[in-house]
Specification:
By secondary structure, this protein is mostly helical. Helix content is about 75%, strand content about 5%.
Length: about 130
């Protein structure tokens, strides 16, 4: 459910800082040796950045299906193409399956998608730097 709130610059900055820390730690990890953990970390960083974007706009997404709705909101509001939106939803689904079912991601997923993931993260950071 999307709820209007006051823009929260302090929480936005904290979420950005946490995303940076997660990505910094990820850079020190052998991503191919731990592909499931790598996917979780990438998704976590992107989720924090998307949440920072929505909070900076005075929007909070909460409740059942909040992650899915947040992706849809940011994708629509910020002109992400359908392919990017579907990719983010796929990452969300994999992250849930890893966390709740013990699903294992193959290292090829990380190898084949690392440029795409880095590109999305870069776009999210740029959207936030325009707001600051």
């Amino acid at each position: 459910m999307i709820v209007k709130v006051q823009p929260d610059n302090q929480k936005t900055k904290a979420l950005i800082a946490m995303a940076r820390i997660t990505l910094e730690r990820l850079d020190k990890t052998d991503k191919e040796a731990y592909p499931s953990n790598t996917l979780i970390d990438y998704y976590d960083a992107m989720h924090k950045l998307m949440e920072a974007i929505s909070l900076s706009e005075g929007v909070k997404v909460k409740g059942e299906g909040a992650h899915q709705e947040l992706i849809d909101y940011v994708a629509k509001r910020h002109g992400f193409d359908e392919q990017t939106k579907q990719f983010l939803q796929q990452m969300r689904d994999y992250r849930n399956r890893i966390s709740y079912e013990g699903f294992m991601v193959h290292k090829n997923y990380v190898v084949l998608n690392s440029k795409k993931i880095s590109g999305i993260i870069e776009v999210l950071f740029k959207k936030l730097s325009v707001k600051s």
